Amino acid sequence: MQQAQSPANTRPVRWGVISAANIGAKAVSPAIQASRNGILAAVGSRDPRHAADLYAFSPTTRIYGSYQDILDDEEIEAVYIPLPNSLHAEWTIKALEAGKHVLCEKPLAVTEEEAREMVEAAQANDRLLMEAFMYRFHPQIEWTLERVQAGEIGQVRLVRASFAFDIRGRVENIRIQPELAGGSLMDVGCYTVNLCRAVYGQPPVSVAARVHVEKFGGVDMAMNAILDFGEGRYGLIDSSFELPMRQSVEIIGDEGSITIPVPFTPRNMEGIVFAMKNGQMNERKFPMVDQYQIEVEHFADCIRNGQEPVRSLSETLENMATIEAIYESAGHDWPIL
């Protein structure tokens, strides 16, 4: 996939981060700091002392005591939002209305309706908005999707995608708080939905699903779904907060298959893809990269070059609709807000 490139003399994009969430402090903010076209200018947190400790690696980054301070800083051009799911829409829209471009963590919103309001705010304020599915920028995923689109394994008939990890003992984790729009589908199952949509190039025409909810009013601790893409093409996806850490993707065509053992978070390791065709198994390795850095560099390039991000908002809206359809099929009352 061709990435937009910034001229060497283009000034870097100045980023602000809203909240001191772990994903921001430990993954995305270091990626911004290391990027060729961005500056980690400021972080807004309700606990500035805690934020200062987390961001000790970047002593020039300003630490603000509120989220609004980030939006009031006229030097900041782009905002990264790793807030709990229930706050994505509110602060994304505020940031867009303040004239900031926004990279918002996945899933973009709690519902499709919320996501549409966010998209409309981006369009009304002529700002860029992108959902932060960093795994789509990893070379192993780009290579795989290129092979699929080129027909190298024939017509895809089945996609199996799983993502799970065990947080049963972490009762205070925001991922299992219904008021924060948690749940296994929202947190990790959304990756499997996104991957199926990317492979088939369209949303499913129907879904059938089940979720496991431990108590009334709680979030889904596990999800299993069949996505029907029509013409005998399916996606089988699952997510869980009750199983050991595992993730995998298998894409099966009528002439071969592609398997990715660690498709979503291959941090600090090389990427590996196995392609099977005509009875022959071929292994393709990819050098270790920071997919978060590739993501933020792409977004900054788009800001400077006036281009739309490669991760389209129409795709995001379709994926949000699929997430809602899964909950509806499973009979899960969502959102619980």
TrEMBL record:
<dbReference type="InterPro" id="IPR050984">
    <property type="entry name" value="Gfo/Idh/MocA_domain"/>
</dbReference>
<protein>
    <submittedName>
        <fullName>Deoxyfructose oxidoreductase</fullName>
    </submittedName>
</protein>
<comment type="similarity">
    <text>Belongs to the Gfo/Idh/MocA family.</text>
</comment>
<feature type="domain" description="GFO/IDH/MocA-like oxidoreductase">
    <location>
        <begin position="146"/>
        <end position="258"/>
    </location>
</feature>
<dbReference type="InterPro" id="IPR000683">
    <property type="entry name" value="Gfo/Idh/MocA-like_OxRdtase_N"/>
</dbReference>
<feature type="domain" description="Gfo/Idh/MocA-like oxidoreductase N-terminal">
    <location>
        <begin position="13"/>
        <end position="132"/>
    </location>
</feature>
<dbReference type="Pfam" id="PF22725">
    <property type="entry name" value="GFO_IDH_MocA_C3"/>
</dbReference>
<keyword id="KW-0560">Oxidoreductase</keyword>
<dbReference type="Pfam" id="PF01408">
    <property type="entry name" value="GFO_IDH_MocA"/>
</dbReference>
<dbReference type="InterPro" id="IPR036291">
    <property type="entry name" value="NAD(P)-bd_dom_sf"/>
</dbReference>
<dbReference type="InterPro" id="IPR055170">
    <property type="entry name" value="GFO_IDH_MocA-like_dom"/>
</dbReference>
